[in-house]
Amino acid sequence: MPYSLLIRNCGQLLTLAGGPTDQPLRGAALADWHILENAFVACEGDKIVALGPMSALDETQVTAATTVLNAQGRVVMPGLVECHTHLVFAGNRAHEFQRKLQGESYLDILASGGGILSTVRATRVAPEAELLANALRHLHDFRRYGITTLEAKSGYGLDKETELRLVRVAREAGRRQPVRVVPTFLGAHVVPPEYKGRPADYLDFLAADVLPALQGEAEFVDIFCEEGAFSVEDSRRYLEKARALGFGLKIHAEQLHDLGGCAMAAELGAVSVDHCDYLSAADAARVAAAGRTVAVLLPLVPLFLRQEQYAPGRQLIGQGVPVAISTDFNPGSCPSKNLWLALSMACLKMGFTPKEALAAVTLNAAWALDLAAEIGSLEAGKRADILVLDVRDYQEIPYWLGENPVQTVIIGGQVV
Ligand code: NIG
Ligand code: FE
């Protein structure tokens, strides 16, 4: 079969390949993947079929039917995997920005009925078509940043009807454009006004009434384990029920306090524990021991919440915890879709090296979505999700702070 797509003259081909394939990258392996110089990558249909140095290119497979891109010495790498977003919501929280600048904390704004609850009010009354249009606009922006797969959480409905609508919108948005969307159910975001003071009752309602309706619709179930949201014990009971129904597990934990949610979720087999700003060394060791749980670090969140404490990335890598990096795009704690900026901030504030940070937004982010067998690296047999960047050395990627280095985006073998 001739190649349907060939990218030639890649100055540096960041393969992300060469490490273990049965578990996420951790410790030294995070930076121990292969970069090929003066290389090519070839695809048939939606799959990568060959890659290597230009000298090894089989020109007989290049025909008139082959789309040929000349990278002209640029960096070529796997599409970015954005493994934690709150994609579907109405309105915005610009009105709370000023309150935050005046010193009000995230949890104070939430306790006063604002924050997440303010977005819940706007989202409940928004027509489905408006939610879909918003999601599609955001996906378009993500695609320009080179995101080729994106996780999308619900969590701004907090009632059955609206939560099901948010998952439906995420799935429909995935069908209408090329970025692959992975839906996660975050009905357990905070306690809705209807269940004020009764978090356990709300979780029982979600487990009994809502989760069964989402089987086959949402891949993962997530919960916000935090003061002012859900306790570790309530979170454990809820996640156990979700696991019994066949969902993969995720948790928002140790964002603002060290409660022990990350270690608890890792021990339940969660695919990821997200935020981790206040994760202790002792609990990090428990996450590492769990084996395959990825710590998803979100450096734009402390930046936007004016928080000094960032997740201890360097220490987590040293302890053998697999790490990924994401934006956490949402209207409250990170109204940014710039995963390249998050990557730079992980280097500046969490101690990542550029190579480690690149693994954290590709292959390890794919592990955090249980998709590493299909995406996250450039290897024969994997999906042809590929970026051509307008830089010539990978070290420039975190260096051009806040810039978008993407020149060309390929999803499933198609230039999009
Ligand atoms: O991941 N911390 C909880 N949830 C989101 C923020 C949601 C919001 O503020 O609207 C987060 O930071
Ligand atoms: Fe989040």
From TrEMBL:
Domain (Amidohydrolase-related) ranges: 75-416
Cofactor or coenzyme needed: Zn(2+); Fe(3+)
Protein name: Imidazolonepropionase
Enzyme Commission designation: 3.5.2.7
Pfam families per record: Amidohydro_1
Localization per Swiss-Prot or TrEMBL: Cytoplasm
Keyword Zinc: yes
Top-level EC class: hydrolase
Keywords noted in UniProt: Cytoplasm, Histidine metabolism, Hydrolase, Iron, Metal-binding, Zinc
BP GO annotations: L-histidine catabolic process to glutamate and formamide; L-histidine catabolic process to glutamate and formate
UniProt pathway annotation: Amino-acid degradation; L-histidine degradation into L-glutamate; N-formimidoyl-L-glutamate from L-histidine: step 3/3
One CC-aspect GO term: cytoplasm
Native source species: Hymenobacter daecheongensis DSM 21074
One MF term in the entry's GO annotations: imidazolonepropionase activity
Signal peptide range in chain numbering: none
Residues that bind 4-imidazolone-5-propanoate: R93, Y156, H189, Q255, S333
Binding residue positions for N-formimidoyl-L-glutamate: Y156, N330, G332
Cofactor note: Binds 1 zinc or iron ion per subunit.
Protein family according to the UniProt entry: Belongs to the metallo-dependent hydrolases superfamily. HutI family.
Catalytic activities: 4-imidazolone-5-propanoate + H2O = N-formimidoyl-L-glutamate
Function: Catalyzes the hydrolytic cleavage of the carbon-nitrogen bond in imidazolone-5-propanoate to yield N-formimidoyl-L-glutamate. It is the third step in the universal histidine degradation pathway.
Keyword Cytoplasm: yes
Binding site for Zn(2+): H84, H86, H252, D328
